[in-house]
Amino acid sequence: MKACASVLRDLFLSSCIAAAIAGITACAVSDPESAESSGGSGSGDGDSGEAGDDSGASDGADSGVDGSDGSDGSGDGGGGGDGGIGFGGGVFDLDESAGDWAIYEEGNPEGVIENVTTPSLDGLALRCGITGGDPYSNIHCYTNLEAVPEATDFELGLSFWVDETTCNNEGSPSVVQALEFTMDQWKDEVRYEWALQWQNAGEGAPQWRYWDPHQTDQWVALDPPLEQCLASEAWHDLVLVGAIVDGSVYFSGFSLDGEIQALGLAIAAEDDPGAADKLAIAVQVDGNSAQTPYSVYLDGVRFEWSWIED
Fold first, then answer.
1. Which of 26, 84, 157, 251 qualifies as a cystine partner to 263, CB 3.0-4.6 A?
2. What is the pLDDT of residues 113-124, one digit of tens each?
């Protein structure tokens, strides 16, 4: 077992931290060695104005890879406290098996998902890339995981590298329109979706936005705005943390390269009739007006969850 505090980051209200506040002393997750991998997000803004469609993040996770051969990495639980016991699990190095991933297409793109050795941090990374197609088409790379319906707190962690681009068309047209990072829980035909977008072109860009499927403009800028021009051809470390709180999708916060951004946003979950229980994570690359080829590379991809039982 490893300490829960090392899994759910810093200032975020994870189940482990909430348990500690409530006087619950035990929280445990599985070791990385014991968990095996198994196995979209919508519109980006255009070079000038809006482009693409605004379908929900991780739409592709409804089909394709079902994760039936994988392990949910469930932890063994922990010792008692007066209020309950913390449990958890996770899957690690999800980037190392491209065969566990699939592509959902938005518009009419051409794309690729494959393992590569360069660039990488540990000798093997996952490439999710646009290779052509119609303007403003998107490639949504996702992997479905076995259901863990009791899980209420989630953390997606990964390192990513993106090909050379300008920010918001300064100096030359930006190759990257947007990058999107998503984690999902489906339970009892309800979808809980935490999606974060780095919008690189369009009004307000470059900036970070979150997904609210109930809004007319479903990608919503942070308030106050968080504007950021990311260095391309360099590794960045991203951690996204969220929870199910009173039936809502709660965005706890995220960190990029060690800089923490607390969010504290509660969004209503979505009914999804007929959907099977499952977990999923995804990354999406959005194309520009020329559908210029580019890729994002992922390394050290992990997805962890936890819950409290009385």
1. 251
2. 999 999 999 999
CA–CA gap between residue 199 and residue 46 (Å, rounded) = 10
| b/e burial code for range 245-284 (CB count within 10 A of at least 16 → b) | eeeebbbbbbbbeeeeeebebebebbebeebeebbbbbbb
Q: What percentage of the chain exceeds 90 in pLDDT? A: 72
Question: In angstroms, rounded to a whole number, what is the distance separating the alpha carbons of residues 206 and 214?
Answer: 23
% of residues, the chain, pLDDT over 70: 73
Closest CA to 212 of 260, 268, 170, 166: 268
- Tokens in use for 190? 């309800």
pLDDT of 20 higher than 50: no
Q: Is the pLDDT of residue 22 over 70?
A: no
pLDDT tens digits for range 139-161: 999 999 999 999 999 999 999 99
